[in-house]
Amino acid sequence: MLTHDAATEWIARWDRQQEGYIPEREERFTALIDAVEALGRPDPLVIDLGCGPGSLSARLLRRLPAATVISVDADPLLIMLGRAAYPELTFVPADLRTSGWTKLLGLDRPVDAAVSTTALHWISGPELKAVFTELASVLRPGGVLLNADHMATDDVTPTLSRLERAVHERQTERAFGANPPEDWRSWWEAITADPAFAEASEERTTAGAAHHGSESRLMSEHVEALREAGFTEIGTLWQRGDDRLLCAVRGRPSRPLAARA
């Protein structure tokens, strides 16, 4: 059985390798949670799409302890880690690309916010519309999708896109120099070699949960899919280089956003 301490150690190692690609990761988390908080509900219902082992979900719940956070991922190994490390979270195994995934969430009221970090890029452009359309069906009017990821703009502003990548590369060089953290592949090779994860690793392979590369790397792919799914206001709330927090609003707000203190 996977212990809480062992899971916590693996997730700390996960977070570190993620920082190698996103040195501003904690700032990004903070900006995203700020936006959820600014919606004005002390007890928001939030879905974390492609939650991995729950890094964002756990941080969100620490900031907003009255929130209900439902963490969704298709990878059985990552869900195994998250359940052992964060028993206060609700993990739901589901593939966002499979129609009907929202029926697995056990929702009893409309969702206030859907959040995601470095996950939705592995869904192809044509599939994104279906994902966002189903998501919109459970979001309240004025509810939001907050998606933090690397999104390129090569197709519309190629010079800016090149400069955005350069800013990110310089920031990464300053953060790590010649000693970058463990990379994605090395982390996966290490955890799948651990006997404690043998069953989950086999299930992961059978389910085809592993993904590689970026199926929807362009911001325009996400914006187009969101518009076709019925989202109205779409824009960037936070950005560092090509790493950005994209926000999309479903319909008109049902009430004004909370006033700033």
UniProtKB/TrEMBL annotation:
The UniProt entry, under Pfam families, shows: Methyltransf_25 (PF13649)
Q: Which keywords belong to this entry? A: Methyltransferase, Transferase
- Give me any GO biological process, just one: methylation
Gene3D superfamilies named in the record: Vaccinia Virus protein VP39 (3.40.50.150)
Gene Ontology molecular functions: methyltransferase activity
In what residue span(s) does the Methyltransferase domain sit? 46-143
Q: Which protein is depicted?
A: Methyltransferase domain-containing protein
